[in-house]
Amino acid sequence: MQIIDAHHHLWDVEKNGASYPWFSEDLADKGWGDASMLLRNYTPQSLLADAETAGLQILKSVHVQANFDFSNPVAETRWLERAARQDGAQNLPSAIVGYADLSAENVSQVLEAHAEHGRFRGIRQVLNRHENPTLNRAPHDYLNDPAWRTGLGVLSTMGLSFDAQIYFHQADQLARIARALPDLRIVVDHALMPAERDADKIEGWRQAVTRLADLPNVWMKISGFGMVDNAWTTDSIRPFAHHCIDAFGPSRIMFGSNFPVDKIMSDYGRLWRAYADLISGYSEDERNDMLIATAERFYRI
Fold this sequence. Notes:
This protein is of the alpha/beta class.
């Protein structure tokens, strides 16, 4: 099966270990299980080896910021450009989604420095806010920060995209921003992270997905289920994936592995076999959109 992996992470802790704050810290329990396996290199060659073992062909791929040194995020983009040109990397990653603090006064300069690199396509700044401290991922409520929204406008003006990692209760805030910036292409990461599984929370998640799908400049990325359900099965993720596809349509759906984080919960082959099963009832053109073409269009690769 040929795929574009639209969401993965890469790092070289041997060369850049000091630049990953999480590498030198005691990894907190985020509900992912034993995260010690993350404390080793994961390079383009590592990703390709996982795909080869699974009998998959990665045509292109998208690296999403991996919490590199927040004071020097362009260095991650610079390293990725070099890594893609190394022997055995097969020109991966094809696109780089970097980090910038969009609320910072120097955001324009940071974005311009990122944009000097040909693979750079946009920014992810994690936005997850939750009253439960184990689910809280962002240090600040950026969605309600006027300075942050100004920075997002700079991103839009530069023709760059934004990867939005939020929970369903933040969807209306994101929708207001998407309507205010109609030229900004936004992709919602990890299927809007259905982390809470009470019936009312699932219904709230479903409605939030539907509302976001009404916005033509918003796409959906199906990925990261392992972070919200360590013991996921194809059947357990099926209703979430199918609701996303039904709401957005195949032309605005892409799939990603979230490796190596989701490698804690599943091998690469099992994950992509699950994805293939989930979309087996769609037409060949629709499957091609979800596995390849949507990511090509969104990330311009």
